[in-house]
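A student in our group prepared the protein record below, which I am reviewing. Here is the record exactly as it was handed to me.
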Amino acid sequence: MTDRRHLAVTAARPPGGWTDDAALSAVVDALGLTIEYEILEGGSPARVYRAGTSAGADLAVKVLVPAAGAVDGHDLASFRRKLRQIDRLQALAPDLAAHYLPVRHVLDGDGWSAATTPFYDSADLAAPLRRSPHGTREFFRQYAAVIRTLVLHGYAAQSHPTPAGHVAQVVVGRFLRRLPVLHRALPAELMTAERLTVNGVRCQAPHLVLERLAGRLAPLAPARLMAPAHGDFNTRNVLVSARPGAAVDDFRFIDPRGSTEPWDPVYDLAKTLFSLSVWDPALRTGFSVRSSRRHGYQVGFRQPVFPGYRAAIHRFLPRLAACQGLSEVFRDDPGWLERLLLTHDLHVLAEAPCRLSDRKPKPDLRGGFSTPAELALGHYLLGTLLINDLAAQLGSTGRVDAERHLALVADHLPHG
């Protein structure tokens, strides 16, 4: 984009190394900004602020000072690659690229990076589901427009053969690569147990379940890979205009994966479902986890999940299957719905180590806070429950009853 400014910030490294506050101070000095407040929405380790310029413009400022041991996707290289992905989409899929919030400044320092975008007065994609139990109609109306842009104007711009072992490497491998991070942070007796009980269900450790599933992954592989349209399509990465009377296509995308390689749209569809089922409720309400020698682990949310979320979870796959144009995209991909559920479950598991990389405060709706370890533990336990159920269903019938599977997190979680 022609009006983007790239700045190499040469400020000296502070004693003890860069911190979030020190890097933000360097950005403020370089751009002459006034910081108004921190934006705590989001799930990455980057810190985000609303700021004003001397000319009166409103900006969002994102600063990343990576922590040691940050998982892939939360590291500095991934942060810097996001811009390359957006620029690639400008030529590859311009109708999609027009919906990305433009990056105005890119600043690189000694071990940190920052970027600014115009401040977009908006709500996240799932906001209607929190406003009213009847918000599902508004959510799916908006989501249909979003998916048409993401998939039909984005992913469908390219078609590539799928390499052998794609599901094992990309979907399953993402969790297995991150598993050592959990071993260092979660209770040793949990991480070394081959079997555990979660919400009354006797489960096998997820890495052992995934070994059992290895021979069943080939039929779930995508028929083709497509353009790298996003790659981290959670509900907070879709900003819907808060302007009264805004059109259904008045939305912006932020924070793609940071990859220019061909990708599977099902990965992003599953990320949205994961946002509704576990990720967004966990960040907004926190997890409640109890354990005992007799009953094992009981995991749920600290308060009941928003009714709109529960309704959207159960309607999500039928609405996708009926979405205009998607049937053509998946015309020769018969395993795409099972792959979506598998990918959803692996998103839950792979998010557990991600939570350990995010140091931002996580205030819940009651004013409490969740620690990174609490959020990691909750994701790991729910992912364990889900992947065991999916493996059992695939082993029994070769198919997955999506309604029954998703009820494990939509309907049957304790709270307290």
